[in-house]
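Internal ticket - ligand job 233, NAP:
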Amino acid sequence: MPVALVTGASRGLGRATARALAGRGWSLVVDARRDADLADATADLPRVVAIPGDVTDHGHRADLVAAVERLGELDVLINNASALGPSPLPPLRGCRLADLRRVYETNVLAPLALIQLLAAPLDAAGGTIINVSSDAAVEAYPGWGGYGSSKAALDQLTAVLAAEERELRCYAFEPGDMRTDMHQAAFPGEDISDRPEPESVVPALLRLIDERPPSGRYRAADLAVASPAEVNS
Ligand SMILES: NC(=O)c1ccc[n+]([C@@H]2O[C@H](COP(=O)([O-])OP(=O)(O)OC[C@H]3O[C@@H](n4cnc5c(N)ncnc54)[C@H](OP(=O)(O)O)[C@@H]3O)[C@@H](O)[C@H]2O)c1
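stdout (structure tokens):
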């Protein structure tokens, strides 16, 4: 059975993705910081190794890698766990550098660290890397400078990886707005009930895994209406 590592799988898009892959019979390694939430999210899933911890922590990353290595190859790495930064989102002139460091550690350096550590099992499978990005990487929304620039860095890192790692597939995946805790934190006090559930985005992400289009940046909204080949052309 194929193997995936999904970070941030206790809630939101990560949880929905892990459940979809488990439903297809995949073996999974998943994480999130809060042990109880992660256990709740994965209790009914077979073939799941759930390891609580923080992706910015080197020791935790080593535990994830060891779990993957026990399973053999790694077909798909999904760098989904992410930090938004303070809520409400501050303008850049008031953005604390300590907060920004934490956002970059989570959204840029931890994904790259996992890619580096998991290069051998990814190579063995001719695997796929999916780095979850955001429209804030390409749009200049006031208040989104910290998070958005971290996702822009993740996008560029993904693009360079794609040029370097010709045997792998490397995707930046933009899910669009989703009704999740992170989205609520970005819009504190606002009614976000009109945003789609994260489960609605999973079919687009699965298309990347199933159809393995050329490496690149893909938006869920585009994948929902066109084939990956058409999106990329
Ligand atoms: N929601 C949106 O509208 C939206 C839009 C564009 C892009 N995105 C992107 O989509 C992805 C998923 O977002 P979401 O809205 O589903 O988020 P979410 O509902 O807040 O879930 C985030 C998940 O990641 C875990 N997590 C957070 N920081 C972590 C860390 N340092 N180490 C390990 N696990 C961590 C959380 O659990 P713990 O808190 O227990 O660690 C949780 O399981 C993110 O990359 C986000 O940037 C979201």
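Auto-summary: The chain has ten helices and seven strands. The first strand starts at residue 3 and ends at 6.
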